[in-house]
Amino acid sequence: MTNQIVKMTVNGEKKEILAEPRELLIYVLREKLGLTGAHVGCETSHCGACTVEINGKSVKSCTMFAVQAEGTEITTIEGLGSPDNLHVLQENFKEHHGLQCGYCTPGMITRAHRLLQENPNPTEEDVRFGISGNICRCTGYQNIVKSILSAAAELNAAKEAAQ
Amino acid sequence: MITSAFEYHRPSNLAGALTVLEEHGDDARVIAGGHSLIPMMKLRMADVPHLVDLQDIADLKGITVEVGTVTIGAMTTQHDLINNKALLAAAPIIHEAALQIADPQVRYMGTIGGNVANGDPGNDMPGLMQCLDATFTLVGPDGTRSVKAREFYEAAYMTEREDGEILTQISFSVTNSGFAYEKQKRKIGDYATAACAVLITKEDGKVTSASVAMTNLSDVPVLSEAAGAALVGTSCDAIAMKAAVAAALQDIDPTEDNRGPVEFKIHVAGIIISRAIARAWSRA
Fold first, then answer.
1. What is the pTM for the complete model shown?
2. Listed residues A80, A96, A112: the one ending a domain
3. CB contact under 8 A, B6 and A60
């Protein structure tokens, strides 16, 4: 099948790539745009390691063809922070030992970011339910939940201070 | 896993989508949220030479509640169902059920139309729609027709919908009945081992109407009229509950799979049905 041009805005930058319709978004992000933050875990929409944000939705990018993302705005973990300028969530995952092997972390943080956009004051239960589409096989989730709750508190304190 | 090659179509209106379906017949298939279809394409259990993406068709999205009727566009996502205040007031059972479907990421993409039209016995909405006595609207080359959810399902993945038709909307009456959607699943993201939707209305301490429908306990959703009838006129006491559960279990036909043998499924179904009835009654 012929390649198609796909235009998307990724982490604020306009991108134009050529893709076969059957190419999954995760592979286009990783292999054509060099954004290797989002991981391929199970590739069967179970593990959530490939989670990115598309038009304000948390999406498993292994279960979307790149052509479906034509015209959308995508945020990956690279769009949230950088090694020199960590996002509050990244800072808190580091602080509270919210990662061990790190494989699930980009998906976990991208998902947590969306969760806090929709619910800035989550309870522990809200966080656990909100990240239930992301699997971690190291931490037992305890420290991930702690990291997200701590990031929420920090973001809220910053918001209050700004007012 | 790489799917077979296909041609991608993204029509901006329903007429455009119907044209592609007409042109390619069996070779064309619509995609809504894609979270059932794409996994099947990856496994090469679904071969779709022409994929018709419905995401740009604005007419297929949205929820309206007007003069006692709820109308939901087929492309409305589970996430939208959960967050819609008018729908929560008009049919809270949808909210309760949608929250038990898959996981947050899947709910952002998965649609009510895909869920009801796919014909997968594991999907939660078909049983729920039978419980609500919903009507599906199908649009095809010969025009528009309505089919009752209770008459839509023929066998696993086989429905009343013809190949050239698109399921465009779902409608049902506003309900203030006591409600419950109870689901047993092995883990987040799994389909039900057994699930049950119940609506009960009450007057003077007695059940005046009851609707009991089940998910993943046969190759189609099962509405148990006998279970409903066993509750009507009673005060939903232990004897009536027991009779209703026994009647419902007569209507199912589970098969053994990785969720367990038939005996286990019947056991789980009995507990789930009984919990669903009790919770619906407590809210009636």
1. 0.96
2. A80
3. no
Right CATH number for B61-173 from 3.10.520.10, 3.30.465.10, 2.40.30.30, 3.90.1150.10? Answer: 3.30.465.10
Give the nearest partner residue to B6 out of A1, A59, A130, using CB atoms.
A1
Q: Do B8 and A67 touch (CB under 8 A)?
A: yes
Cβ–Cβ of B38/A57 closer than 8 Å? no
Domain span including residue A97: 88-162
User: What confidence tens digit (pLDDT) does each residue in B106-155 have?
Assistant: 999 999 999 999 999 999 999 999 999 999 999 999 999 999 999 999 99
d(CA A58, CA B122): 24
- The CATH number of B178-185+193-283 is 3.30.390.50
One-letter amino acid of B60: L
**Does B35 sit within 8 Å of A111, measured CB to CB?**
no
ipTM: 0.97
Helix residue ranges, H only, chain B: 14-24, 37-42, 78-83, 85-90, 92-98, 104-109, 112-117, 125-131, 225-231, 238-251, 262-283
Chain B touched by A39 (CB under 8 Å): no
The reply to whether A52 and A102 lie within a common domain is no
CATH topology of domain B7-53: 3.30.43
Residues of B with CB under 8 A from a CB of A: 1-8, 10, 31, 34-35, 38-39, 42, 51, 53, 55, 79, 102-106, 108-109, 188-189
Cα–Cα distance measured from residue B207 to residue B224, given in angstroms and rounded to the nearest whole number: 16
CATH assignment of the domain containing A135: 1.10.150.120
